[in-house]
Design brief:
With 170 residues, this protein is mainly alpha-helical. 65% of the residues lie in helices and 7% in strands. Strands 1-2 form a two-stranded antiparallel ribbon. A hairpin with a 3-residue loop joins strand 1 and strand 2. The longest helix has 25 residues.
């Protein structure tokens, strides 16, 4: 049986796949169109999400924070001004790295301490940080839906319940 936090990450990847499938059916300009929202475009929202995925993969891999920060401009540049299919490929690579990390972390409740430069340190566990990654993605996928509606397009359902229903049919 798959451990719950890891199954939750599978939901996270499923939800991204649903949104990428939907975005690939829309005109390409929708991805880059400027809107009034949390980020100026769907593309920039995904750029933020990509950097976040890479950053927290590094955190979960226990890379020291001072070694992570120099990579942020690189990750930001990787996700800048690329089409939907390019963004999908970046996320697929990040997801593969997460899956490898989870395979090498058999105990999702593995204790760890993370250090944030502004908020200090936190004694937590691997699964809590993984849940944070999923929660952050859920929040911004909602932003993307609002951005699409602002441009006259529908969103796509990515609720956890729909993931469970789809999994139950397999």
């Amino acid at each position: 049986m798959i451990k719950q936090p890891y199954a939750l990450y599978d939901f996270h990847i499923w939800a991204y796949a649903r949104i990428f499938n939907h975005l690939e059916e829309l005109p390409e300009e929708v991805f880059h169109a400027e809107v009034t929202s949390v980020f100026p475009s769907v593309a920039q929202t995904f750029g933020h999400l990509y950097v976040f995925e890479r950053l927290y993969h590094s955190v979960l891999s226990e890379v020291p924070i001072e070694e992570i920060f120099p990579h942020i401009p690189v990750w930001t540049a990787e996700a800048k001004d690329i089409p939907v299919d390019g963004m999908r490929r970046l996320f697929a690579g990040a997801a593969e790295e997460f899956h490898v990390l989870m395979e090498h972390t058999p105990d999702p409740d593995k204790a760890m301490t993370i250090v944030h430069p502004s908020y200090g340190s936190l004694d937590t566990c691997f699964s809590d940080i993984l849940r944070h990654v999923v929660n952050h993605g859920t929040y911004h996928r909602g932003n993307v839906t609002a951005m699409l509606r602002q441009q006259g397009y529908s969103g796509v359902p990515t609720d956890y319940l729909f993931f469970l229903m789809e999994c139950s049919k397999k």
